[in-house]
Amino acid sequence: MNTAKQFFQGGGELADYPGWYKIEGGTEDRPRSWSVIRKPDGTWWKVAAEHYFPTGGGNLRIDLGDEITDEDMLTQCEENYRQLLEKIEEKKLVKAVKPLGEE
Questions:
Q1: For residues 75 and 97, what is the distance between their CA atoms, to the nearest angstrom?
Q2: Is 14 helix (H, G, I), strand (E, B) or coil?
Q3: Is residue 2 part of a domain?
Q4: Taking the CA of residue 2 as centre, how many other CA atoms within 13 Å lie in the half-sphere pointing to its CB?
């Protein structure tokens, strides 16, 4: 069986869960088909469900699925996390740069 190549597509820190990072990805055929969470303790979890504007308040409630323990998956998660942090830093730098002519 031929496994489709997985692609990192984005993510960020969750405002309702400080220190938690959500990473999304997919394949060429199914973009945004998976999500994982990195908790502040460094563990990785599959996202089972997302509830936007839940009745209990906040903007988002995440239901966690299984903890990711497979070494290959953990390696990929850490690589995606590194890429995400780089993109976050790049965005901070772009915002800090003022247009020409401004002091």
A1: 34
A2: strand
A3: no
A4: 3
The answer to the question of residue 57 being in a domain is yes
| CA dist., res. 5 & res. 48, Å (int) | 21
User: Tokens 């999304």 belong to which residue?
Assistant: 24
The string of pLDDT tens digits covering residues 30-77 is: 766 889 999 999 999 999 999 999 888 888 999 999 999 999 999 999
In whole angstroms, give the CA distance from residue 38 to residue 19.
8
Give dist(CA 86, CA 19) in Å, integer.
Answer: 16
Instruction: Specify if 30 maps to a domain.
Output: yes
Domain tally, the chain: 1
**Alpha-carbon torsion (41, 46, 49, 52), positive or negative:** positive
Joined tokens for residue 20: 């938690």
How far is the first Cα of the chain from the last one, in angstroms, to the nearest whole number?
A: 59
Q: pLDDT at position 5, please?
A: 66
State the pTM of this model: 0.78
